[in-house]
Input
Amino acid sequence: MKIDRVKFLTTLVILLVCINLTTLATIWLTRPAKSMGFDLPDGPKQFIIEKLHFNEEQIQAFDTLRKEHFEEMQGLRKQIYESKEDLYNQIKSDRVDTTIMFASIANIGRFEEKAERITMEHFRKVRQLCNDEQKQQFDLVISDVIKRIMLPPHHGQQQMHTPGSKPMLP
Output
């Protein structure tokens, strides 16, 4: 009887981990720029440009940084998506392969960690574009930008789409 109870609890924990990951991914992926508190067409981009009063040269450099950041993040999003596919494909099986499950979860964690490092470095480079006065303003608004980016979506808002991108969950 103890073995059945252990199997049941293990299955329950696995199911709860999957539900939590799905919930977090849904929250993260369904935030359009407007739900982030940016009432501007380009969301955070336009907010930063306006708050820091970037000149044309800074705007061009900022656009280049954003493009590089986007390209790096696209590769990571693809890796996260594939790892999540491997993870959630385990639901289709009567017996969960815990090796695949734990490896997929570990991969997702590594890719998410890398994404945070890349984003941190991106914002450090944006700050380097600033003159001394703009750096002071950047230091004041960056936490606001990050908070707005991390806000959960408001009920009833549309999901944000990036042309050519896949949703994170199958």
Notes: The helical segments are 2-29, 44-52, 56-89, 98-129, 132-150. The chain has five helices and no strands. Residues 32-41, 155-170 have pLDDT under 50 and may be disordered. The CA atoms of residues 49 and 55 lie 8 Å apart.
